[in-house]
Amino acid sequence: MSVDLIRDAVTTSEPWLAQCHFVRAADTNDAGTKDSEGPLQDGDTSQTEDRFDLPGDRDDHCKGLVAVLTSDRAGFEQALEKFLADQPLRLLWCEDIMPATRWMMRYPKDKSALDLARMVHDYRPVEIGPLATAEDGPGEHADAIWVELKEDITPLDDQFGAWPPKTVPDELVEYLFGDIEKTGKTGLATYAVIDASKMTHLVENLATSGLEYRCLFTGEAGENLGEVAPYLVKLEKDARFTRDLLSKGDHPWQHWDREAAAFIRSSAGFDDIWRHLRKFTKIRDSNDKWFFLRFWDRMFVYYLHEHPKGPFPEGFFREIEVLIAPHKEGAARIVGKTGSEATASEPFFPTFSAFVAGNKRTGFIDRVKAFFNAKYENSPDDDVLTQQYRYARELGMTSELAVLKTMEAQFVLHRAGQKAEKLDPAEIQNFEDMSDVHRADALLTLATKMVGD
């Protein structure tokens, strides 16, 4: 397991908000509805149903603001679905799911949203605001991009005996070199942005490919970071280099599993798309500090899939019609602009960095779970692993190795039926003066001693 810094925060529950769309079925109960005779009686638990009452005797499509006490997007939808189990509503979709703090940044005049967020707590984790009838469709703010997940892609193999050999998997021919109907355009050029750090001898291979290419870094950055820099390449369908990018195997020229490239369809010429993409290799955060943005990485495209309304780096799609990121698992995420501008007003960087941190945290916890299963032949439930992770971060552990060992120390106690709270750093001499890895080693030694292993 690599020892990389985990640049994220401890996850805690907080109010999240979203604009949610429902179908409200016509009432069939006799009590507590608009058709009942007389007021509700004391102790009647159906008082929530007339809150969701709408005119008409048919299924009604309605929408309203919803507040949920949760720690992430998935938890929002899970808690809402559970809450609706005994309500006369069925969830259709949710728009703009985000923490209440970010919602208020986007809609600072929406005081009712703030009031709704203040209503949720541990004993009432879901609160639905007033509902209004809604037109069928995606909602009042159109998506700025369309998204697809193309699965069951068969990468190219050695193709021994095949003539002529294919250069593109059948499932990707239309997306990479055909006319994509959703764009409404024909004759789009195909470009690849390739990560030199993921392909050995990339520059040498490009030099003999016969294709037009250029590094997206220039000047000192291009000189110092050339071996790990992104390169823009104009692809031709029948080129050997194109085939190598999309081939899977053990040969050094087969690059599918490296996930080294993202593909772009654009009507712009090479020089224009090169100048455009260079604008987004670095972005500023809210403190005016520069950061590299790896927009050619699958994580960025995954973010776009989860945020079809944005926020995006301003102007990112101006010269880009479609962005395609193949996955080594035999799939590809595809996004394309719709012609609608993103409506989100909050800055891109904090939203994207929080998304990346959350996914890194989830991936790390998954790896810890696999480690426990391999070493101990079992592992705790995900909620226990999350608590162990939080405790490690609260102790100031920053490296993955230190977090792993601190979680393992807690797991050793967990297996023995003891609570993690008994793992007291005060029992370790000079604990605060140690590096985080040495502190984690000391905690693991202490836990092992406590259970007598």
Automatic annotation (TrEMBL):
Stretch list, region Disordered: 28-56
InterPro entries the record matches: DUF4123 (IPR025391)
Ranges for domain DUF4123: 191-304
Pfam families from the UniProt entry: DUF4123
Protein name: DUF4123 domain-containing protein
Organism per entry: Thalassospira profundimaris
Lineage of the species this protein comes from: Bacteria, Pseudomonadati, Pseudomonadota, Alphaproteobacteria, Rhodospirillales
